Amino acid sequence: MKHPDEDHARAELDADARRELESAFGVTEAAPVIPEAEQQEQASDDAAARADAPGDTQEKKSESPLGRFADTPLARELSEITRRRRALESEELPLPARTRVFTVANQKGGVGKTTTTVNLAAALAKNGARVLVIDLDPQGNASTALGVEHRSETISVYDVIVNDVEIAEAVKKSPEGGELYCLPATIHLAGAEIELVSLVAREQRLRSALEKFLEESEEQFHYVFIDCPPSLGLLTINAFVAAQEVLIPIQCEYYALEGLSQLLNNIKLIERHLNPTLSVTTILLTMYDSRTNLSNQVADEVRQHFPEQTLATPIPRSVRISEAPSFGLSVISYDTNSPGSISYLEAAAEIARRGAPGSSTN
Ligand SMILES: Nc1ncnc2c1ncn2[C@@H]1O[C@H](COP(=O)(O)OP(=O)(O)OP(=O)(O)O)[C@@H](O)[C@H]1O
Ligand SMILES: [Mg+2]
User: Fold this and answer.
1) What are the angstrom distances between the C-alpha of 95 and each of 26, 61, 218, 343?
2) Span 145-171, pLDDT tens digits
3) What fold characterizes domain 6-10+71-354?
4) Which end of the chain is more exposed for a tag (fewer CB within 10 A), N or C?
5) For the whole model, what pTM was predicted?
6) Over the stretch 282-314, which tens digit does the pLDDT of each residue have?
7) Is the CB of 141 within 6 Å of ligand 1?
């Protein structure tokens, strides 16, 4: 069967452009899958992050009834959180006039891509937006965090991009609440990098499916977030081609900026050859700890390089954020008033304001 994008893809991508893209994204006949060693390293990183997360003590303390100790640092912190929560409650967020499609990408592993995708999506849905999360990572972490089934027999994003199944057939409503939907990923997606190589319009398969889905949806989606795997292969190319905006989460730690220039170069290549409307609109600092010099240095450096794109709200390192997925919940449902939840709600509010009709970044 001829794929609808076949002619379009051929016309847009001459042999030189294809070679340039393929070498930048490391696409070969045996395209890269995430090596097992890297996954194990990731798992131990995660364990270390949980063990020494400084947010832990802070959050546990903030659950204590300390109201009468009015002049302690803890009481001040609590009143600051209350102030931020009230400010959020008093604002109604604008909805974008047309669907904003974000790719959440960073080839560095464990920087908070999935956590950011899930919590921003939940925050926007809580504020009345209709939101779709596309889990494009074979690990399926976004599907888990949104409480959506993703056993191997589930119809998933793999069937959409490899077998031409329609997104409408695979999409599930998240039990999280609000108008929040998820296109789940199953383990089959791990083979898709290789299977895609021989398919026509292989860079555009997600875009075609998403365009059709958005056109045919009875009610308009306001946001789509695509959660990428920690690699720059064909799945990530598909995500960049399907989106207008790139959101890069940057972890506030040593080596944070390593690999960023390669990521930005690859995004430029996509913009030049495959998707002229793509741009990096949003950078979010994650796992920020205001008490460490390192976090502050990374934050300053990122803001210096990307003054327009970096959101004012950094996401703090927080045990509540890392616990929430094991309950199949966003931190916003799991512990609404925790600093992590409030920060994601604030970041979502910034994104919504920036995309509002009439905003200069719209
Ligand atoms: N702000 C935070 N505070 C504490 N832990 C966090 C925070 N953000 C993310 N984590 C934890 O760090 C780990 C990595 O986060 P996440 O899975 O979102 O990263 P990722 O970039 O999607 O990873 P991968 O590259 O494997 O897809 C997870 O265990 C997550 O719970
Ligand atoms: Mg992830």
Assistant:
1) 38, 36, 17, 20
2) 999 999 999 999 999 999 999 999 999
3) Rossmann fold (3.40.50)
4) N
5) 0.85
6) 999 999 999 999 999 999 999 999 999 999 999
7) yes
